[in-house]
Specification:
By secondary structure, the chain is mainly beta. The chain folds into four domains: 10-92, 2-Layer Sandwich (Phosphorylase Kinase, domain 1), CATH 3.30.200.20; 97-275, Orthogonal Bundle (Transferase(Phosphotransferase), domain 1), CATH 1.10.510.10; 356-606, TolB, C-terminal domain (Neuraminidase, 6 Propeller); 609-620 and 629-873, 6 Propeller (Neuraminidase), CATH 2.120.10.30. The chain is built from ten helices and 63 strands. The strands form 16 sheets. It has a six-stranded antiparallel β-sheet with strand order 1-2-3-4-6-5, with helices on one face. Strands 13, 14, 15, 16 and 17 form a five-stranded antiparallel β-sheet that branches. Strands 30, 31, 32, 33 and 34 form a five-stranded antiparallel β-sheet that branches. Helix 3 (110-128) packs antiparallel against helix 9 and helix 6 (204-220) crosses helix 8. The protein starts with 9 loop residues before the first strand and ends in a 9-residue tail after the last strand.
């Protein structure tokens, strides 16, 4: 550099504060980001080294490798630049200490060691699944923050290779060769693998060996292969085994020692074949549900030599592990009842990995997750390329298969023999064999989101709502087909979430009463209007579980309460099974299902998200605040504030907050139920939103109003505003009438304020946005059978033109009106050039910008479309479903 770095000097947009340290790869400085006002770490290659081609290549590679990753256990890279001829990296600034400093020759408590080991394995798995091998994993490159978060540092020796996903697609993303020729030794002695010492090509299994050496040291306080000289240390790595952990730490369980030994195998083929497998094995050991002396060690033997999944996360565990767990699930009932004297079994939890590019579909009035009565198969609703179908996953298999013919399905439920699945679609109740085949229609029904249950005698029950009579009704129909017969139409009770009891004559349901004090769990009898209240609890789904429990949700968590199925009575207090799953209190929605054999499946809470700025290439430019349960965010017209919908920890119902981009936030509206869909007025003085307090409807409130719920200019209904025209004259909103499909309506904000329909068809239309000049409207429609994006003139809405080429949702305009953006069915952010006059729009070819599979919501904030405000997952959302075995063990703990 022409000038030495010193405090208060500038490097790019960063003001240097102080020097943090230095090493073989450069100096590290603490600095302040002058644009975003946050502290960062600046790593600069010293000027004396800038002419060293090899060192410079390693430095650039560190930036490439780390910059390709976005994971909570890997150091976040914000920016890569060049200052006075020397490259630098700006990353997040960490406060804490390295694992080397933390160890200091002493072992860690086993629970702490397992915690750090799991975080390290998960972070490495994310890197490996991107085709990146670290090759220098050691305690000096592992940082523990003050809040206990582990961060992997220094990808300076990382070997970039095409990821398996890229190889399959035969992409031309460039890679870099980094001294991997035979005979070249790279890495740090002590944690190096045998193949690295021999100068052989090192893949992800080399990182696993280093991981094993680190875990050994965390548990024993001693380095696995340290000897008196370099030659002796190298010989030990190549030929010797480290001393047994039990010699230095008798508290280490045999199962944990086997994991360490397997990581340290000399032959790479005998180690864990992926860090996903390794993480799964550690997770099973570190589960807080295990009792002292109990452990579960899944046998994770992969059939390939690479990471099984191409997505971020550690959930792509192997065929053998899944087969073992599936076998446990299938044999659980016989084990439990035929061997009553067997010691209490350990609780086992494991995630279900979804098929590639498939998302799990939830809706607050459906039940889209169902385990078969025999506990062997799981049915769920997944969406891929804009099409939602039933997927079936056997617990002894690693993949789920889609059932053809189940398009637009929702609320699947099983036959008692576990051979067939009933479901709702297209205003009909249908059935299909779990193995596939033709779809049969059982009966016609009034279109409405609902659920069902199937009894041993072939009777199917499903609730519905009679909008003519204004009351809930329960219907029964034979599974072979026929006309539904209504019963339980008392007029003062609305039955929800029906579920048969073992006798297939009585059933459970949640009763929503006109007198809300009488809401609760009820029992009924097929064909009868008689009911019996079982428990007074807030709205919830409820199921019976053998040998005698009610499973339901209380305060957002799954609980079990003893229940006498013959006497129809509860006893004792509910006990916790699973903490905090997604829950929607207005309907009692929650996703769980329990088999006759005691297998419990549930939707995991993957609701934490981050607010961040992204550029057009999908690179994160900076974050706003800490992760939270963000649903949506809209920037104010002056760009100084954001209106953000945030759901609660115990409910998916949201409150609206206003964030000041200079710091701080204030709650804009907070009510007992849902408030969402914030939309700014063009002058920034008011916000329109959906409010469900009292009457569910569109509301408008002044930003300066510190209390109240604002005005309701239109009647009650499921009405969600989606945009406010730039001239301030109109609000456009979705009208979701359960008797018809979703339609688009306009609310004039002057004169009589009488709403009028913008677009009413037999299909559903939603999420409309005005063009900046007000002449056009972009919106979603499913008239083609898949969700697509369309644009039409404001004065001629029926003359629409399709924007998306193969499915699309969440359309937005560029602020200058020259582009449209949307999320494709394949999960990519798409851009389409737009030119429109008063007559007809002209559209370009959709172009993919960046992957957006974890993106929940976004707003286009730069006039030229170069900057986005996004709400996106903090980590992989690929495993929303979890399985729990032996849950009854929790109920035996005194």
């Amino acid at each position: 550099m022409s000038q030495p770095i010193s405090p208060n000097s500038l490097i790019g947009d960063y003001t240097i504060i102080s020097k943090v340290g230095e090493g073989g790869m450069g100096e590290v400085w603490r600095a302040c980001d002058t644009k975003l006002g946050r502290d960062v770490a600046i790593k600069v290659l010293p000027a004396a080294f800038s002419s060293d081609v090899g060192r410079l290549r390693r430095f650039e590679q560190e930036a490439q490798a780390a910059g390709a990753l976005n994971h909570p256990n890997i150091l976040v890279i914000y920016h890569i630049g060049n200052h006075d001829g020397s490259p630098y990296i700006a990353s997040e600034f960490l406060e804490g200490e390295t694992l080397r400093d933390l160890l200091d020759g002493h072992p860690l408590p086993q629970r702490k060691a397992l915690d750090y080991a799991l975080q390290l394995a998960v972070g490495l798995a994310a890197a490996h699944e991107k085709g990146i091998v670290h090759r220098d994993i050691k305690p000096e490159n592992i940082f523990i923050t003050n809040d206990g978060r582990l961060k992997i540092l220094d990808f300076g020796l990382a070997k970039l290779s095409p990821s398996y996903e890229e190889l399959a697609a035969q992409t031309d993303i460039p890679t870099r060769k980094v001294n991997t020729d035979p005979g070249t030794v790279m890495g740090t002695l002590g944690c190096m693998s045998p193949e690295q010492l021999k100068g052989k090509i090192a893949d992800h299994r080399s990182d696993i060996f280093s991981f094993g050496a680190i875990l050994y040291e965390m548990l024993s306080g001693k380095r696995a292969f340290r000897r008196d000289s370099t030659a002796e240390t190298m010989s030990a790595i190549l030929r010797e085994e480290p001393p047994d952990l039990s010699e230095t730490n008798r508290t280490v369980s045999p199962a944990l020692e086997r994991i360490v030994r397997r990581c340290l195998e000399k032959n790479p083929a005998q180690r864990f074949h992926s860090t996903s497998d390794l993480a799964f094995a550690i997770e099973a050991l570190s589960s807080p549900s295990l009792h002292p002396g109990e452990s579960v060690e899944p046998v994770a033997v992969s059939t390939t030599s690479h990471v099984a999944s191409s997505r971020p996360g550690w959930l792509g565990y192997s065929v053998a592990a899944v087969a073992l767990i599936g076998l446990m699930a299938m044999s659980f009932s016989a084990f439990r009842y035929l061997s009553p004297k067997t010691p209490i079994a350990s609780i086992v939890r494991f995630p279900i990995l979804l098929p590639e590019k498939t998302t799990y579909v939830t809706d607050v009035e459906d039940h889209n997750l169902s385990i078969s009565p025999d506990g062997r198969q799981l049915a769920f609703i997944g969406e891929s390329e804009g099409q939602r179908r039933i997927y079936v996953r056997s617990l002894d298999q690693v993949t789920a298969r889609a059932l053809q013919g189940t398009d637009r399905a929702y609320s699947p439920f099983w036959s008692p023999d576990s051979h067939s699945i009933a479901f709702f679609a297209d205003g009909k109740l249908k059935r299909i064999e779990a193995s596939g085949g033709p779809v049969q229609t059982i009966c016609e029904m009034t279109p409405r989101d609902t659920t069902g249950t199937w009894g041993a005698d072939g009777t199917i029950l499903f609730p519905n709502y009679d909008f003519v009579q204004g009351q809930g009704v329960l219907y029964q129909v034979n599974s072979a087909g026929g006309k539904p017969t209504p019963f339980l139409n008392q007029g003062d009770i609305d039955p929800l979430w029906v579920s048969f009891l073992p006798d297939s004559r009585n059933f459970l349901f949640y009763g929503r009463r006109k007198n809300r004090e009488r809401d609760g769990i009820y029992a009924g009898t097929v064909g009868s209007n008689d009911t019996k209240q079982i428990a007074t609890v807030p709205r919830t789904r409820v199921e019976y579980a053998a040998p005698g429990y009610l499973i339901f949700v209380r305060e957002g968590s799954i609980v079990a309460q003893p229940f006498d199925a013959k006497g129809l009575s509860v006893s004792g207090e509910p006990k916790l099974l699973v903490e905090q799953i997604p829950y929607f209190d207005p309907t009692g929605f929650s996703e769980f299902s329990v088999s006759d054999t005691g297998v419990l499946v549930y939707q995991a809470d993957n609701s934490l998200a981050k607010l961040a700025w992204f550029d057009r290439g999908g690179h994160e430019l900076g974050r706003i605040g800490s992760p939270d349960r963000f649903q949506s965010a809209r920037l104010s017209p002056d760009g100084k504030q954001m209106a953000v919908a945030v759901s609660g920890a115990q409910s998916s119902s949201a409150d609206i907050w206003i964030y000041d981009l200079n710091g701080g936030r204030n709650r804009f509206v907070s009510e007992p139920t849902d408030d969402s869909n914030p939309i700014w007025s063009p002058d920034g003085r008011r916000i329109a939103y959906f409010g469900s307090t009292g009457k569910s409807t569109l509301r408008i409130k002044d930003v300066s109003d510190a209390s109240g719920t604002g005005e309701s200019p239109i009647p009650e209904g499921f009405i969600g505003p989606t945009d406010w025209s730039r001239d301030g004259r109109y609000l456009i909103y979705d009208l979701n009438d359960p008797t018809v499909q979703r339609d688009l309506w306009i609310l004039p904000l002057g004169g009589t304020q009488k709403p009028f329909p913008f677009l009413q068809t037999k299909a559903s239309e939603w999420d409309a946005k005005f063009s900046p000049n007000g002449r056009f409207v972009v919106f979603n429609s499913d008239e083609s059978g898949t969700d697509e994006v369309y644009v039409s003139r404001f004065d001629k809405p029926s003359e629409k033109i399709r924007v998306s080429s193969a499915g699309g949702i969440q359309p937005h305009w560029r602020p200058d009106g020259r582009e449209l953006f949307y999320i494709s069915a394949a999960g990519e952010m798409m851009a389409v050039a737009f030119a429109g006059d008063a007559e007809a729009p002209k559209l370009g070819t959709p172009t993919a910008l960046f992957p957006a599979t974890e993106l929940k919501d976004y707003d286009v904030v730069a006039p030229d479309g170069q900057r986005f405000l996004v709400v996106t997952g903090t980590e992989s959302q690929s495993a929303p479903i979890h399985v729990m075995l032996n849950w009854e063990t929790l109920l035996r703990v005194k």
